[in-house]
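Sample pair:
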Amino acid sequence: MEILNKTLLGLVKTGETVLEAYGIENPRLESEILLSALLKGSRLDLYLRKEDRVDFNFASKFEETLNRRGTHEPVQYITGQEFFLNRPFSVGPGVLIPRPETEGLVQAALNKLNEGPFLDLGTGSGCIAISILLEHQKCREGYAIDISPDALSFARTNSKSFGLTSRLHIFEGNLFQPLPQKLRGSFEVIVSNPPYLDLEADEIDYSVRKFEPMLAINGGAGGLDFYRRILEEAGFWLVPGGYLILELGINQLDTVSSLMKNHSNWNRVDIARDEQGIARVLTLAYKGSSLG
């Protein structure tokens, strides 16, 4: 693209043309977002400075970001940021990008949590656990687990940036495996957005399949592998009367509910639907002994 002698507004227009040629939806908006990120400012800042001229190095960096987006790499990976409950979280390759529907998981946890502690299984960027602690100042502490060291690097970065390193304890491992045994029977709430896609059966967006981590997406046959394991083990870690709160994929309410038939210690207490009316958050109460 022609990048010499450009103003910021000129770069916006050039970026729009380039992204449109790549087949990107909303090319003007995405051009503004990518350019604003390079400026380390907002889209408003961009237009307040629209007549500023840019040097060759800056314009070249913008060209690089456009080319990355042209491969359908997610905007969030390019800018290094995604908002979740109106807060900016650091993200990048190796960590699942937070989705708006997951915000309902936080609200469901807040509705059931007293002073804690709580556990976030498969924390990824840490957006769920961090949001709970920020929204619920009386909650003493949270625990977060993920199997991916790449994801946990973002969780730790975000925990530090929000000043929560003393309240959020982060562990690397497979589901409950890394937790100290002294925590058995101690959690008021366990919350999880587990991998729930069936890679063989579900339609998965190209950019998700190509760029986002399969560890955070692949739920096995029917997308049910992790629900089975969580239902089998979560009771050992909850206080009697504690809650297990799960995000669901599309059309998974009945299949996940059917798994409960093998575990008599769970009662279904609430279902929350997203803006499209999809059953998205399932809340279960544990009625058994914490000794399993």
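Strands lie at 81-84, 87-90, 118-121, 142-146, 168-172, 187-192, 238-247, 266-273, 279-286.
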